[in-house]
Design brief:
Blueprint lengths: L2 E2 L5 E3 L2 E3 L4 E10 L5 E10 L6 E6 L6 H12 L9 E5 L4 H6 L22 H12 L6 E8 L3 E9 L4 H10 L3 E4 L7 H7 L4 E8 L5 H17 L17 E3 L2 E5 L4 E5 L6 E2 L4 E6 L6 E5 L4 E7 L3 E2 L4 E6 L3 H6 L4
Length: 333
């Protein structure tokens, strides 16, 4: 188990990191079938002053590049060098998936559905088990960065469990454009953090196999606000003042394609739309068919399917269901 002793020395993954020092320690628990070791770099920066331990993770799904870029920028800019306490960054948790540009582990399992793992289970389950035993317990606060799956683009958002006032408080500090009530998924990383009593924010932004500079900006600035709130951000770093509060979304619904064909989206993700507003078109490839898609409710578009081709029944827009006036009362965009 990782720990910080009475002399403020961090012991993690079999190594000691002294106050005021940094280290990169490779978390190695499996090999490729070629016997090549696969190492997950764990980047640690410590202040001389005691304080919280913040764990930043990305790439739990190997094809979600935006999160990797957010944590990379935090490291590259030196934001991860704390004024007090310790910051641990793991830009790519699922190295296996990242190498293959795939969401899953090589055993076909979704790492974010097998936590807290098993000592003698599948490869993904064993990895989750070792992560939970050897790294996670040291954390006082976790930030986990994700994107939408496949071609579905998520507006930058924080997901919190309804009624979790502590997470909602931190979400408001992070100040992504949207904060969405979202049930905790069974055997997810977020559920495991919650069961261990570790506050965690799940950030979603953009889509898989894509890097979006605007999404990265929201992620980096949100992380800086959290670190500043914890008194961990070095004084030299500045971030924009909060001009618009996060929009809290309590419920939402998917708008699905009524026909198969080529999808032509007409609005940007994040836009507030009126009920009946024209938002996309579905056509056939031959110029004979054209179907207008209109919003089925008033609300914010928090996810857009950016695939050029859809089948009947495919989810194409995720739209909040709260009235505009209510959202504005909660600090709308």
């Amino acid at each position: 188990m990782p720990r910080i002793d009475k002399n403020n020395v961090l012991e993690i993954l079999g190594e000691k990191v002294l106050p005021g020092k940094g280290a990169t320690i490779n978390f190695n628990m499996a090999k490729l079938y070629t016997t090549t070791s696969v190492e997950v770099p764990v980047i640690i920066e410590r202040s001389k002053k005691p304080g919280p331990v913040v764990l930043l993770t990305a790439g739990i799904h190997g094809d979600e590049i935006n999160g990797v870029e957010i944590v990379r920028q935090i490291i590259s800019k030196g934001i991860n060098k704390p004024r007090i306490g310790t910051i641990i960054c793991i830009p790519i948790v699922n190295i296996f998936g990242f190498l293959n540009m795939a969401r899953e582990f090589p055993d076909g399992r979704d790492l974010n559905r097998v936590f807290p793992g098993s000592k003698n289970g599948s490869l993904a389950s064993r990895f989750a088990y070792q992560f939970v035993k050897k790294i996670l317990p040291i954390a006082d606060f976790c930030l986990d960065f994700h994107t939408g799956g496949a071609a579905r683009f998520n507006a930058p958002q924080i997901r919190v469990k309804k009624g979790d006032e502590q997470s909602i408080k931190y979400a408001k500090i992070f100040n992504a454009p949207f904060t969405i009530h979202s049930k905790t998924i069974t055997k997810s990383y977020r559920e495991t953090c919650s069961k261990l009593g570790i506050p965690v924010l799940l950030f979603e932004g953009g889509k898989s196999l894509d890097s979006n500079k605007d999404v990265a900006k929201y992620g980096v600035e949100g992380a800086m606000r959290i670190l500043s709130h914890l008194d961990m951000l070095a004084p030299k770093f500045e971030y924009p003042d909060v001009r618009k509060e996060t929009v809290l979304i309590g419920s939402s619904s998917w708008l699905r394609a009524k026909y198969s064909g080529l999808l032509h989206v007409k609005i940007p993700c994040g836009k507030h739309v009126e009920k009946g507003e024209y938002i996309a078109t579905i056509t056939d490839p031959y110029g004979k068919f054209r179907h207008k898609i209109k919003s089925n409710s008033e609300g914010y578009v928090i996810n857009v399917n950016e695939s050029p081709i859809v089948y009947q029944g495919d989810a194409i827009f995720h739209i909040s269901m709260q009235p505009k006036t209510e959202e504005h009362e909660q600090g709308g965009a």
